[in-house]
Design a protein that fits this description.
mainly beta; seven-stranded mixed beta sheet; 11 strands; globular
């Protein structure tokens, strides 16, 4: 499966953005999908993940209550709705897909397919 993330941009603190991850090649319903982010000079970190059917989601504590992950398998797309953005949310955001069980979803190493990333910049 190929993934393409989009929707990033420049936004003021407190603003909102919606990232999209478009899948092609295989139906995305076969995969759990996660969002990760990497800020300059920092390691890649887990943001949120959604199970294959969309029935289960999990968010990092740092974004819980502000970010929502969802998916539309009919459109082969996954979304990350981000509210109340903070300057510390500035990073390149990546979507990634994995098969197998809904376990270890915060671990980047279990994801076999990655998109190219989209830049999110939050100004103070």
């Amino acid at each position: 499966v190929q993934l393409q993330a989009s929707g990033g941009g420049l936004v003021q603190a407190g603003g909102s953005l919606r990232l999209s991850c478009a899948a092609s090649g295989r139906t995305v319903s076969s995969y759990a999908v996660g969002w990760f982010r990497q800020a300059p000079g920092k390691e890649r970190e887990f943001v949120a993940a959604v199970e294959r059917s969309g029935g289960s989601t999990y968010c990092a504590d740092s974004v819980k209550g502000r970010f929502t992950i969802s998916r539309d398998n009919a459109k082969n797309s996954i979304y990350l709705q981000m509210y109340s953005l903070k300057p510390e949310d500035t990073a390149v955001y990546y979507c990634a897909a994995r098969g197998g069980l809904w376990v270890d979803v915060t671990q980047s190493g279990v994801y076999g397919y990655w998109g190219q990333g989209t830049q999110v910049t939050v100004s103070s």
